[in-house]
Amino acid sequence: MNRTTLLLILILLLMLPFWLFSYTHHTTFGIDQETVQGDRVQFHYYRLWWPGNGTVFLGHGISQQTYQTERQYKNFDLAATLFQTPYNVPIPRSIWNHLGLWWVNKPAPINQWWIGLPSFSPVLIVLLFIYYLRCT
Q1: pLDDT exceeds 90 at position 19
Q2: Cα-flanking dihedrals φ and ψ of residue 122, to 5°?
Q3: Residue 104 and residue 89: Cα distance in Å, rounded?
Q4: Domains of the chain: which residue ranges?
Q5: How many other C-beta atoms are found inside a 10 Å radius of the C-beta of residue 66?
Q6: 107 three-state secondary structure
Q7: H or E stretch covering 125
Q8: 59: closest CA among 88, 39, 37?
Q9: Are the beta carbons of 31 and 81 closer than 8 angstroms?
Q10: Which one of 28, 59, 113, 125 is CB 3.0 to 4.6 Å from 49, fit for a cystine?
Q11: For residues 22-39, average pLDDT
Q12: Per-residue pLDDT tens for 58-73?
């Protein structure tokens, strides 16, 4: 067994809890970036998000707020929430959403886009890579 296969097995083992709990719990990983622009602050965020409905989302958003002098802003901040009670779960609006396939592109009030797949998809992709490497 080569190092690549071992790395993929480790990734698979790390991803399994997120898949299994994706139907009942909210988990997110990402990066926040806050940029002060005069009297405004622009917030950028990048996320990998399991909202608790059996879907995994990859997305980005931008919003602006008024600068608050009592708050400290960070140019780079790692963000994570692990296995929490779901909130703000997207509501399926089509048969595709019920199947776990999402494309969200909202220009306002927060400019954001998301692509969503069934939460087992990343696990399946890693399993297919492992199978491919074992067969070659």
Answers
A1: yes
A2: -60, -40
A3: 13
A4: 23-118
A5: 7
A6: coil
A7: helix 121-135
A8: 88
A9: no
A10: 28
A11: 94
A12: 999 999 889 988 888 9
pTM, rounded to two decimals:
0.85
Residue written as token pair 């595709």: 96
The order of strands in the sheet holding 111-118 is 77-84, 26-37, 40-50, 55-66, 111-118, 102-106
Take residue 112 and report the two structure tokens written for it.
């954001």
Helix (H, G, I), strand (E, B) or coil at 30: strand
Distance CA 65, CA 82 (A): 27
Quote the CA–CA distance of 119 and 51 in Å, as a whole number. Answer: 10
Answer whether 2's CB lies under 8 Å from 103's CB: no
Contact 61, 110 (CB under 8 A): yes
Long-range contacts at 125-130 (CB < 8 A, ≥ 24 apart): 126/8, 126/11, 126/12, 126/15, 127/12, 129/8, 130/5, 130/8, 130/9, 130/12
* Cα(22)–Cα(118) distance, integer angstroms: 10
Q: What stretch of H or E contains 15?
A: helix 3-20
